[in-house]
Amino acid sequence: MLPRWGRGAGGISGGSQKTENTLKLALKPVCLNRNAHGLPFLGYLLYPGRTRLAQRSRIRFLKKLRGYEENLILGIWTQSEYQAHVLPLIAFTEHAEAKEFRKKVNIGKSVFGQSRTFARRWF
User: Fold this and answer.
1) Mean pLDDT, the chain, as a whole number?
2) Whose CA is closest to 57, among 115, 102, 17?
3) Minimal CA–CA distance to 38: which of 48, 25, 23, 24?
C-alpha cells in the first residue's frame, strides 16, 4: 500500500504545492556542486569526466601491499593466497585513472623490496 502522500491524482508532484503553501517552505532548484579539488566518494576523487584515487586510498594500497608481501615472504601465505588478496586490491585502483600509480609501484618487483623505497618517495 502506498504512503498517504503518494496517493491521489497529484502524487508526489502534488506534494510540492502542499510544501510551499501549507508549510511555507520553498524547494531549492536541483544543482550539482563543482569543486576544483574533486568530490571525495568511496576512496575516489570524482571530477567531471574523470576519476582519480584519493591520497588515503593510495596510502592504504601501499600499506596493504606491503603487509601482503611480508606474508608471502615469511611463508604465511602461498602464492595463490597472495594472489587472492592482491587481485581485489589492484581491481580497486582500476576503476580510477591510476595506471601511472600502478606502474610506479611496480607490483611484480615489489616482492623484492623495491616498493618500500617507492612508498617513502611517493608521499
Assistant:
1) 77
2) 102
3) 48
